[in-house]
Amino acid sequence: MKLIIARHGETEGNVKKILADIDDPLTSKGKEQAENLSRRLKNEKIDAIFSSPIIRAKETAKIIAKNHPNADFIIADELKEGELGSYLNKGFDEVDWELMPKDVESRLSMDQRAKIIVEKALEKYPKGTVLFVSHNAMNKAIIRFLRKWHPEDKKSIPQGNTAVTIFEISEKERKEIIFNCMQHLD
Asked: Is the pLDDT of residue 110 over 80?
């Protein structure tokens, strides 16, 4: 299976550098980024688009889906952003990711969700091309899982808005093809 992982377009939360809740739609720039991503993926034969149910990811996925009318469109709770708990609506510089409160979803929990959704997609589309449209932390969890990194690994995994990462996955192998590519925004 070819797995394309994309982050949603820009939101007000991204602009203000806050950890936003589920009601944070794309800005006009975010919609433009999603359109650029859609053009980039236009020639891919995408069999299925899995989207987080959160509005910013769904908006991005729907823009991409316009160029892939025959692709299955699946809303997947596993692709939701991590539960932010008491970090919700705080600035990026106001939180401590090393000493997270108990009400913030752990990396281990997110990595477990990543494993579930990747295995679900691989089982249903083993020879197909699948697009995941999700969020910064969730995409990092998926990439950590595919790279076989420990959930608490602190290696940097940058994720710009509408960044694309591509893996070729089989039962035996995981091969990273592209990482955090944003050429479509140039």
From this structure: yes
CATH of segment(s) 2-185: 3.40.50.1240
Cβ contacts of 124 within 8 Å, gap of 6 or more: 48
The tokens of 102 are what?
């108990």
Q: Which amino acid is at 81?
A: E
Side-chain half-sphere exposure of 100, counting CA atoms within 13 A: 16
Using one digit for the tens of pLDDT, what is the confidence trace for 119-137? 999 999 999 999 999 999 9
Q: Residue 77 is encoded by which pair of tokens?
A: 């709770």
Going by the DSSP 8-state scheme, the letter that residue 58 receives in this structure is H
Tokens in use for 15? 């602009």
Give the burial class of 22: count Cβ atoms within 10 A of its Cβ; 0-12 exposed, 13-18 middle, 19 or more buried. Answer: middle
Max distance between CA atoms of the chain, in angstroms, equals 45
pLDDT one-digit tens code per residue, 35-90:
999 999 999 999 999 999 999 999 999 999 999 999 999 999 999 999 999 999 99
DSSP-derived 3-state class of residue 150: coil
Helical (H) or strand (E) element with 32: helix 28-41
Other C-beta atoms lying within 10 Å of the C-beta of residue 46: 22
Can you give the residue ranges of every domain in the chain?
Answer: 2-185
What's the CA gap between 17 and 24, in Å, rounded? 12
Q: Which amino acid is present at 166?
A: I
